[in-house]
Design a protein that fits this description.
The chain contains 13 helices and 33 strands. By secondary structure, the protein is α+β, with helices and mostly antiparallel strands.
């Protein structure tokens, strides 16, 4: 007779301990064997192996309860499962920066910092990218996730773990959280509004400081090409009356040809051949009111082949000091990036972190940069060997936090807190407590909700629920998928920035925290802001709009620092009692402004929801009455996205006065009419 056995656990409660602010439950998990003969009834037996368990529940403050669940003696791949109640119509927001969905109910997602991918569901592009490079990604992948949610019923939970976790929201009546650890550390937050829950959660995650005023005075011009190119662009921007806060020169370290075009030398020192008269250039720009920003990441490449152009070979220094992430055999863990390989600095090593901070202070801040893009951070391999045998699978999600912390400490140690800024794309739970600014990674230069201008809006709204208060996107997107050297154009695989997309993205970003351009990964294939005089004028106008909105952003910056609230907000945060705002996807609040950007090609009107009140159209001054709230169809031609403010808003009035003085308002009244509510589709 053949027998099979399965094993489950029988839980026993053996002890309860209580103090003034905590309770501890403990007991045993007894292994239960179920023998199933090939014929006859199953027989259950209890005994043999057992495991101790412990649940510690404590009160942190009036809005936070912490609990720690431990199970001893689990296998080499332990897992703990947590179930929480839900209901079918409950909406789930947060999970860090999500790029495709705002409401995650009905989905399953892994909380793992990783490159989101190219396409992320846009077909057949995603299929093609997966076939050729495994880079298609998925609709819940994120560079900056967080194991945290807030629901439309004002329920909120966060894990404090760095281990991989999986949130299953597919069942209508519950949430299942699976954690790859034998100890689960979590917090439950209490609040009657989403703002209260964000304020409570950011006591755990940390809060971001206000941006320096100079950063918000105008556009950040992302460009490459060297000293002469920067001077030429500066002259053209001045001629167009464009307020410029900074030039972001990511190729300050020099560039080389690779299989995908041109890429930077990752050696984090100035290339004087590409940027001769660097100090004089900086002085010229600063006289005109513009700073210089640069670029770094936690990778290093061997620059032996261009040794005559380099003062230091940082890769070789780090290798000799044992500061690089390594393989099991102790060799440097080289990661392939197109045509070259690079190694990551081991941020689990305190000495390596100190060394890299000194590099930043000496070679980045020392070169006169007022800020930089602190790229990457999500690529630590699970099988890497780290300092002091740290577990790479656990440190993987902690690496983005450590990377942001290192950059922040370099600024503080240089005595430049509040003056110098860096922006990161990778992150995890506690990244807001270290970072000065986020950007939402690398969108496709297209219109799709999965990967394009729409997912830029989604990223801003979702990340705001998880404490990423200052966030922005690349104007025009980043990823162009044309294949270098391949002459045949395949339309459904060929994405490049159009003039219309650039114009609409310019309009969108004027109403966010930072107004920054990017040429994209293939600049010559994308429409740029200086493609023609009309585009330059459009860019200059919205740079002035952005600068005028500083009066709106300033109090939002204080709220971010003091309460953790986002600058760009999902309307439900500001209108928690309105029954419609929880379902909104494609509009957002910037202080008193309700913004509905145009996100579809060829569109000249948008539909938006206005909560109860009397609303004024920003550009024309026309008013709309919405005594009980309502949906409206509003004209939105190029140059006039749908933006409204409450009739009695002093901040908005100040903005209108400034825009009128610079002739940036419109005298053409838009057509505006009430429309039926659209169907309630989940994101």
């Amino acid at each position: 007779m053949r027998r099979t056995s399965t094993f489950t656990a029988v839980q026993t409660l053996e002890q309860i301990q209580a103090t003034n602010d905590a309770i501890v439950l403990s007991g045993q998990l007894l292994k239960r064997a179920t023998d199933r003969p090939s014929q006859g009834r199953s027989v259950e037996t209890t005994g043999g192996e057992h495991r101790s368990w412990r649940l510690h529940i404590s009160i942190i403050d009036s809005q936070q309860i912490a609990f720690i669940a431990d199970v001893d003696g689990l296998s080499s791949e332990p897992r703990v499962l947590l179930r929480c109640a839900s209901d079918p119509k409950e909406r789930f927001y947060g999970f860090g920066e999500q790029l495709t969905h705002i409401d995650l109910k009905g989905r399953k997602l892994d909380i793992l910092s990783q490159e989101p991918g190219i396409g992320r569901g846009v077909q057949p592009l995603t299929w093609f990218m997966n076939k050729v490079a495994g880079a298609g990604g998925g609709d819940t992948r994120s560079s900056a996730p967080a194991p945290h949610y807030i629901t439309s019923r004002c329920r909120s939970l966060a894990l404090e773990n760095h281990e991989l976790s999986r949130f299953d929201l597919q069942k209508p009546d519950r949430v299942e959280v699976e954690l790859w650890s034998s100890q689960l550390r979590a917090r439950v937050f209490v609040g009657r509004t989403p703002a209260a829950l964000i304020e409570a959660y950011t006591r755990l995650s940390g809060r971001m400081p206000p941006l320096p005023p100079w950063l918000q005075s105008g556009a950040i011009i992302g460009m490459q090409g060297g000293t002469a190119a920067v001077r030429a662009m500066a002259a053209r921007l001045k001629s167009a009356k464009t307020p410029v806060a900074a030039f972001w020169l990511q190729d300050w370290v020099g560039a080389r040809k690779t299989s995908v075009g041109s890429q930077l030398w990752w050696n984090w020192e100035l290339d004087p051949q590409r940027y001769p008269e660097w100090d004089r250039l900086r002085a010229e720009l600063e006289t005109a009111g513009a700073r210089v920003l640069s670029y770094i990441n936690p990778f290093l490449v061997d620059v032996s082949e261009r040794a005559e152009d380099c003062r230091r070979n940082l890769y070789q220094e780090a290798l000799e000091k044992g500061f690089l992430v390594s393989r099991a055999d102790g060799s440097a863990y080289l990661v392939k990036n197109t045509s070259f390989s690079a190694a990551m600095v081991d941020l689990a090593n305190p000495e390596a972190r100190t060394w890299l901070k000194e590099v930043i202070k000496d070679q980045v801040i020392g070169a006169g940069a007022s800020g930089w893009m602190a790229d990457f951070g999500e690529a630590l391999p699970f099988d890497a060997k780290l300092h002091d045998n740290a577990d790479a699978a656990v440190f993987h999600n902690a690496y983005p936090e450590a990377w942001a912390q290192l950059n922040r400490e370099a600024i503080a140690e240089a005595g430049l807190e509040g003056e110098v800024v860096f922006f990161v794309r990778s992150g995890f739970t506690r990244s807001p407590g270290h970072a000065t600014l986020f950007w939402a990674g690398d969108q496709l230069t297209g219109w799709a909700a999965e990967d394009g201008i729409r997912c830029g809006v989604t990223a801003l709204l979702s990340s705001g629920f998880s404490g990423f208060s200052f966030n922005h996107t690349d104007i025009g997107g980043y990823i162009t998928t044309a294949i270098p050297g391949f002459r045949l154009k395949i339309p459904f695989l060929d994405y490049r920035r159009s003039r219309e997309l650039l114009w609409r993205w310019i309009e969108l970003n004027a109403f966010t925290a930072v107004f920054r351009t990017h040429e994209g990964n293939q600049p010559e294939r994308n429409t740029q802001i200086d493609v023609d005089d009309e585009t330059m004028a459009h860019f200059a106008r919205f740079a002035r709009v952005y600068a005028a909105l500083a009066v709106v952003r300033e109090p939002l910056g204080r709220a971010a620092a003091e309460q953790g609230l986002p600058v760009v907000r999902h309307p439900w945060i500001d209108f928690p009692n309105d029954p419609i705002t929880p379902s909104l996807r494609w509009q957002f609040c910037l202080g008193p402004l309700m913004v509905a950007p145009v996100l579809d090609p060829g569109a000249t009107a948008v539909s938006l929801y206005l909560p109860a009140g009397r609303w004024t159209h920003l550009w024309s001054g026309e008013t709309l009455d919405a005594p009980s709230g309502g949906w409206f169809l509003v004209d939105a031609p190029l140059g006039q996205p749908a933006v409204f403010h409450p009739e009695a808003s002093p901040e908005a009035a100040a903005v209108r006065t400034r825009l009128a003085a610079s002739h940036d308002l419109s005298s053409v009244p838009p057509r505006m009419r009430a429309i039926p509510p659209p169907s309630d589709e989940r994101s």
